[in-house]
């Protein structure tokens, strides 16, 4: 009985985290072969599906997110690639 309650609480917590962390995959970041730059690849269809915002000077921007921890792993060579995403409401 206690085990079932614990599992239900853990599942509810995971569902809340998934709900809070919903995102749209937009592209990838990887290190260049020479290692002196980051290569950013954006999927055109996904990018066109992104929401935008307009600043007071009339410029339109697309807010995107890259995890700093994951990006540091790419830079340090511990990871080959990481994602670029847009957080969804």
Whole-number count of domains? 1
Overall mean confidence score, pLDDT:
86
Q: What is the tally of helical segments?
A: 3
Q: Per the principal axes of the C-alpha atoms, what is the gross shape? A: elongated
How far the N terminus sits from the C terminus, by CA atoms, comes to 36 Å
What proportion strand? 25-35%
User: Based on helices, strands and strand pairing, what is the structural class?
Assistant: alpha+beta
Evaluate the radius of gyration.
Answer: 18 Å
Count of beta strands = 5
Note the run of SSEs as H and E. Answer: HEEHEEHE
Would you identify the regions where 5 or more consecutive residues have pLDDT less than 50?
12-19
What is the helix content?
A: 25-40%
Largest sheet: 3 strands, antiparallel
Main-sheet strand order equals: 2-1-5
In short:
With 89 residues, the protein is α+β, with helices and mostly antiparallel strands.
Any chance you could write out the topology, listing elements then pairs?
Blueprint: H1 2-20, E1 23-31, E2 38-42, H2 44-48, E3 53-54, E4 60-61, H3 68-75, E5 81-87
Antiparallel strand pairs: 1-2, 1-5, 3-4
Task: Describe, in plain words, how this protein is organized in 3D.
With 89 residues, the protein is of the alpha+beta class. The protein has one domain. 36% of the residues lie in helices and 28% in strands. The strands form two sheets. It has a three-stranded antiparallel β-sheet with strand order 2-1-5. Strands 3-4 form a two-stranded antiparallel ribbon. The chain is elongated and about 40 Å long. About 9% of the residues have low confidence.
């Amino acid at each position: 009985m206690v085990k079932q309650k614990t599992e239900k609480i853990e599942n509810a917590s995971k569902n809340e985290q998934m709900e809070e962390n919903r995102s749209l995959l937009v592209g990838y970041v990887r290190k260049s072969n020479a290692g002196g730059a980051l290569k950013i690849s954006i999927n055109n269809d996904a990018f066109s599906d992104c929401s935008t915002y307009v600043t007071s000077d009339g410029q339109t921007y697309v807010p995107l997110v890259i995890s700093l921890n994951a990006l540091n792993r790419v830079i340090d060579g511990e990871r080959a690639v990481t994602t670029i995403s847009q957080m969804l409401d």
